[in-house]
Design a protein that fits this description.
Elements (H helix, E strand, L loop, with lengths): L4 E7 L2 H8 L8 E7 L17 E8 L8 H18 L4 E4 L3 E4 L2 E13 L2 E12 L25 H22 L2 H10 L7 E6 L2 E10 L5 E5 L4 E4 L3 E4 L3
Parallel strand pairs: 1-2
Antiparallel strand pairs: 2-3, 3-7, 4-5, 5-6, 6-7, 8-9, 8-12, 9-10, 10-11
Helix pairs in contact: 2-3, 2-4
The structure holds biotin.
Biotin binds next to helix 1, strand 3, strand 6 and strand 7.
């Protein structure tokens, strides 16, 4: 990971660039930029990417795994960020499936894009955005977003990048070699911001009250609704109640 690093002062989106070069690039190539003019978030959202405020990077991966197992790679990325931040004494947690929170506010998002050719993975572009020094967020995300500096930690971007990539390389290679999902799931549980919490499950413009009880081997979230029924969420959005 990171044998080849492509650096930009400015770019539209590191994910979009990485997708353009993915086919001819080797596994582990990193695209990183000081700013993004069209930073992309999940579900077509915008990702605030001002100059030197954050870390905006994408990793090109070519794992020999089934497309159905690709979400694990996103979880590994989330774990790398949270483990790196914990090593730097930042109390960060994972909000399933892959947002990183400090004090229940989002500090990092991950956008995984994948190209599949006849049920095998051609490549994965793993985009990681971390708010490091941002102090002013736009009105719409002000209450839910934060930065590492805003939460009182003055860290240097390079230290974070180095640790995140170190953690990522270890976890990724371990997973590729062993295909052991249980280890990943256990770590996701250990760093989870949701286990034992009252949450809302947001689906089809509706939100249902539930309690988060577990993360299973497949990395799915196990929730219990107020009528007592227990469900397994494969993907989707949840929010912590009372936030
Ligand atoms: C989310 O919505 O939580 C995901 C945000 C992902 C942002 C990162 S920044 C680097 C990479 N390039 C992009 O355009 N988006 C991702």
């Amino acid at each position: 990971i990171g044998k080849e690093i492509i650096y930009f002062e400015t770019i539209d989106s590191t994910n979009d660039y990485a997708k353009k070069i993915a086919k001819k690039s080797s596994e582990g190539t990193i695209v990183i930029s000081e700013e993004q003019t069209k930073g992309k978030g999940r579900m077509g959202r915008f990702w605030h990417s001002s100059k030197k405020d954050g870390i905006y990077m994408s990793i090109i991966l070519k794992p020999d795994i089934l497309p159905n197992d690709a979400p694990i790679i996103t979880q590994i990325a989330g774990l790398s960020v949270v483990k790196a931040l914990n090593k730097l004494n930042v109390d960060a947690k994972i909000k399933w499936p892959n947002d990183i929170l400090i004090n229940n506010k989002k500090v990092c998002g991950i956008l995984t894009e994948m190209s599949i050719e006849i049920d095998r993975i051609d490549y994965i572009v793993l985009g990681i955005g971390i708010n490091v020094k941002t102090l002013d967020f736009s009105e719409d995300i002000k209450n839910i977003a934060t930065s590492i500096l805003k939460e009182g930690y003055n860290l240097n971007r390079l230290d974070i990048i180095t640790l995140v990539l170190d953690e990522f390389e270890n976890l990724y290679l371990d997973y590729i070699n062993t295909k052991n999902k249980q280890i990943i799931a256990n770590m996701c549980k250990e760093y989870s911001a949701l286990i034992g919490k009252d949450i809302y499950v947001i689906q089809f413009n509706d939100r249902k009250r539930a309690k988060c009880i577990d993360i299973n081997k497949e990395g799915n979230l196990i929730v219990q609704y107020e009528d007592g029924s227990i469900k397994e969420l494969i993907s989707g959005e949840v929010s912590i109640r009372g936030e």
